[in-house]
Amino acid sequence: MDNDLKTPIIPSSNASSEDKATYSKKALIGDATYSKAEKAILAIVLNDEDKYTLDAVRNKINEFKEGI
Predict the structure, then answer these.
(1) pTM strictly above 0.85
(2) What is the mean pLDDT of the chain?
(3) How far is the CA of 32 from the CAs of 3, 7, 28, 66, in angstroms?
(4) Half-sphere exposure (CA, 13 Å, Cβ side) for 23?
(5) CA separation (Å) from 8 to 22, 31, 63?
(6) Backbone angles phi, psi at 24, to 5 degrees
(7) Buried b vs exposed e over 26-37: b needs ≥16 C-beta within 10 Å?
(8) Contact between residue 20 and residue 51 where contact means Cβ atoms under 8 Å apart
(9) pLDDT, tens digit (0-9, with 9 covering 90-100), for 22-31
(10) What sections of 1-68 are H helices per DSSP?
């Protein structure tokens, strides 16, 4: 499972809004796609027990940056 964290998360371009994949906080923070600063933001704004779509994650990062 630790090897899964090194694989980038790539969204499917043909997924409908209802079928979008969701990811845990741990998977998102371990993803190489995000910078160290973005990972730090995710550690703050995401809940451990929730799952998030990539769109929701991008929105949370942007909302956090706008509040700075």
Answers:
(1) no
(2) 84
(3) 12, 7, 9, 23
(4) 21
(5) 14, 5, 23
(6) -80, 165
(7) ebbbbbeebeee
(8) no
(9) 999 999 999 9
(10) 25-29, 36-45, 54-66
